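Hi all, long-time lurker, first post. I run a small reading group and we've been trying to get comfortable going from sequence to structure in the token notation. Rather than ask abstract questions, I figured I'd post a concrete chain and ask someone more experienced to write out its structure so we can walk through it together at our next meeting. Sequence below, copied exactly:
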Amino acid sequence: MMKKRIPRVLLAAPSSGSGKTLLTCALLDALIGLGRHPVSCKCGPDYIDPMFHREVLGVEGRNLDSYFSDDREIRQILAESPGDCAVLEGVMGIYDGADTGSIKGSSYEIAKITETPVVLIVDASGAGRTLISLIKGILSDDGEGMIRGLILNRIGGSYYASLRPVLEEELARSGYHARLLGYVPKCREVSIGSRHLGLILPEELGDLREQIAVVRDALREHVDLEELLGLMEEAPDLAVHGGDTDVPPVLSDGETLTLAVARDPAFCFYYRDNLRLFERKGVKIRFFSPLADKEIPAEASGILLGGGYPELFLKELSNNPSMLSDLRKKLRGGMPSLAECGGFMALHRAITDEKGDRYEMAGVVDGECFYTGHPVRFGYMELAGTADREEPYREFVGMRGHEFHYYESTCNGSAFTARKPFRDVSWDCMVSEHNGLWGFPHFYYGSAPAAIDSYIKRMKEYRHG
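-- Answer (accepted) --
Happy to help. Here is the structure in token form:
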């Protein structure tokens, strides 16, 4: 056991839509302006928010999720961060997680596990004196004293000036130790839209850097950054094991394998630690674009088709028959393949979008996808075995992930049974054909690393014929 010094803070909120992502990016930018080298982490199973962090830092952030990883692994992920300080962005409301009966999977649990001071971001628009009741209610559930600071967002300067002394007096009278650090005024020119999987993608905002700069400047002017930095410094040294978590070798010395990973605007949902797990086991990652490229990289011994928004690029995908043909040929020829959500959709015969327009896809899965207009099988899940059949990818039993999609398939698959945590809910999922495993779930590979060892062995067998 060793100790690592990482000044850090977690930005949480009472609910989604409070402005956490923009304020996280603005704080990262402000820290860089102060000569610091921050890193970022996102609490929970989120792909999009780390992309916004990347716009500031140049690298994607890590995910800290207590449903996917145990306490030791979470602290290890944070400890491996190369910067001199860290900003953690919360998920949903501060106490929201996998189960309404506990804080499992919540931002608050991550703060406890990592001993990270929390700054609560409160959306003050459309409320008055009620804000004080809201804040006091949240602080009353903070049994560990993790919430150390408050920032009021989207509030006018004059109203903040009148509210501040009342709020501070109420906090002092109630014995809470959270300090009011300042506010961020309403900025009409700052807005990030959303769609059914969360925020729209960063590359869709041509003025994202300008928006971040506006909020950064507001932080500098109206928030006591010196006091915020002091809170970060109060975080105790992080207790971790020395070095990376042990990763058993799969490849022999000198042996190399290449995993072709689809990455472009249509397929962009990847956990950094998923790809890193492959790399740590000696597999080379080679990115390709199903939208722009004509074929799978020639050196590939396996394929990973991640999720994203293929439904926004159906015309472009269907108008690239060379790629669809090569994908069909490679998969039917037995190249090991994993496909998650959007990648799974692209393997179908066709996808019908929300307007009713039908587009031809790769045709490897004998079914079609269609828009439902509502979330389908939303939330955390885990793969379970089945009593009446032998799973060809049996090492994936116990793999944890999540589903969040508005499209459904006429061929959802039945290679596994998926079960929701904390609830007696299950369903069949996953298509396993042609040496591939495809389905709607997004997986966190670290929850069942033996499954990735098995997949890499399949890549070796395919390569050597």
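A couple of things your group might point at:
The two ends are 44 Å apart (CA to CA).
The CA atoms of residues 41 and 62 lie 5 Å apart.
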